[in-house]
Amino acid sequence: MRKLMTILATAFLLAPAAGAETYRGYETPAYKVERRIGTAEVRVYAPALVAEVTVRGTRQGAANRGFRILAGYIFGKNDGSARIDMTTPVGQARGEKIAMTTPVAQAGAEGLWTIRFTMPATYTRDTLPKARDPHIRFLDLPERRVLVLQFSGMPGDKVLVEAADRLRGIAAAAGLKPQGAPEYQFYDPPLTLPWNRRNEVLFALP
Question: Which helix (DSSP H) or strand (DSSP E) does residue 160 occupy?
Answer without folding.
Answer: helix 157-173
